[in-house]
From TrEMBL:
This is Ring-1,2-phenylacetyl-CoA epoxidase subunit PaaE. Its cofactor is FAD. The lineage of its organism: Bacteria, Pseudomonadati, Bacteroidota, Flavobacteriia, Flavobacteriales. One of its GO terms (molecular function) is flavin adenine dinucleotide binding. The keyword Aminoacyl-tRNA synthetase does not apply. It comes from the Bacteria. Residues 11-115 form the FAD-binding FR-type domain. Residues 283-374 form the 2Fe-2S ferredoxin-type domain. It holds the Pfam family NAD_binding_1. Keywords: 2Fe-2S, FAD, Flavoprotein, Iron, Iron-sulfur, Metal-binding, Oxidoreductase. Signal peptide: none annotated.
């Protein structure tokens, strides 16, 4: 049995059996799902992607997104999950579902992905905060398996060592991969023997990392390791992502090479808006959603389209409001907009008229949108 559920887009769900469940720390656990032969194609995925899980919590249906820690070559779906509070929905998932039980799991999605380049020499740096390690782990396992020339650096922040998830697995990867993977742990609420590793991962810490860890490059005496960085991966809370993404950008990494994934709703822009637009008042907006036609008028174009529609109580789909998750993707059928930032859409999709409503400013008096992509 399978179901189609609307989560901004139409998402296909299938019943999967829990094959393994493991408590990792006092507030995190893992789930592994059994994928039957007839669904192997449906659950092919790229490193860094996630699935949505539908379950009952406190008498209500809940759909939560969880990143996979498994790599594609492992041919299984493994999730790392954090229990936010004893009263939360995820606690119900941990307490009420066990090996052998079935859950509705969506087909994999998400664009926190990288193009594999097995023949190139690459340097990839990742920053993770807490449960944000999950998609990074998927990436690193996949890269170590498929890219023999790529070297990896992981900077992993947690409050305390007792909350550090997947430490044994990470340390084993570092031991077995020679000098291709280096991992550094940071703690914000636990004193460390070396003061360098005490504190949050932020702009100041990045400066120290660049100058004290990513400085001498054995492969090129005339440059630093930081100079050789090809891609940056960041996963964690919004403020951490904003701080580190901007710091990496100011230290010379192009925005297109800085990839991030949020683990909570975040309503602020990741990068500051550097453009100014002519004021347009009384902007007419027509949009289609779930087969229904809507019409409204925005006071002006000083705020982004999605945010103004939400103020007017329209049930438009969104998750992050930061141009990352893609929930508010729609097609611009009439008018013009300025897409301020885009971590989600491909160049092809942009040419086809796709926009992210949360990152779009109206540039014409009238615009027409279609949220029904399928």
């Amino acid at each position: 049995m399978e179901q189609q559920i609307y989560k901004g887009k139409l998402v296909q769900f299938h019943w999967l059996k829990i094959a393994k469940k493991e408590e990792l720390t006092k507030n995190t656990f893992s789930l592994e799902f059994e994928i039957p032969g007839n669904l192997q194609e449906n659950f092919k995925f790229e490193a860094g992607q996630f699935v949505s899980v539908k379950f009952q919590a406190h008498g209500k249906e809940v759909i939560n997104d969880y990143s996979m820690t498994s790599a594609p070559y492992e041919k299984k779906i493994c999730l790392g999950i954090k229990v936010g509070s004893p009263e939360g929905a995820t606690a119900e998932l941990f307490n009420n579902y066990n090996v052998g039980d079935e859950l509705l799991v969506s087909e994999p999605s998400g664009r926190f992905t990288l193009v594999s380049k097995p023949s190139e020499f690459r340097t990839i740096v990742a920053f993770a905060g807490g449960i944000g390690i999950t998609p990074i782990l998927s990436h690193f396992k996949n890269i170590l398996h498929n890219e023999p020339r790529t070297r990896l650096f992981l900077f992993f922040g947690n409050k305390r060592s007792e909350e550090l998830i997947y430490r044994e697995l990470l340390d084993n990867l570092a031991r077995t991969c020679g000098n291709r993977l280096q991992i550094f742990y940071f703690f914000s609420q636990e004193k460390t023997a070396d003061q360098f590793f005490y504190g949050r991962l932020d702009e100041k810490k990045l400066n120290l990392i660049i100058n004290q860890i990513l400085h001498l490059d054995d492969t090129d005496e005339e440059s630093t390791i930081w100079d050789a960085v090809d891609e940056v991966l960041i996963c964690g809370k919004g403020e951490m992502i904003k701080t580190l993404a901007n710091a990496c950008y100011h230290h010379g990494i192009p925005k297109k090479n800085i990839h991030f994934e949020l683990f909570e709703e975040y309503n602020n822009d990741i990068y500051p808006i550097e453009k100014e637009f002519p004021l347009i008042e009384n902007v007419e907006v027509d949009f289609k959603m779930l087969g229904k036609e809507y019409h409204t008028e925005l006071p002006d174009n000083t705020e982004k389209i999605l945010q103004q529609l939400l103020v007017q109580k329209f049930p438009v789909p969104y998750s992050c409001k930061s141009g990352i998750c893609g929930s508010c993707e729609c097609i611009l059928e009439e008018g013009e907009v300025e897409l301020l930032e885009n971590e989600y859409l491909t160049e092809k999709e942009e040419k086809q008229g796709h926009i992210l409503a949360c990152m779009s400013i109206a540039k014409t008096k009238k615009i027409k949108l279609n949220f029904d992509l399928i």
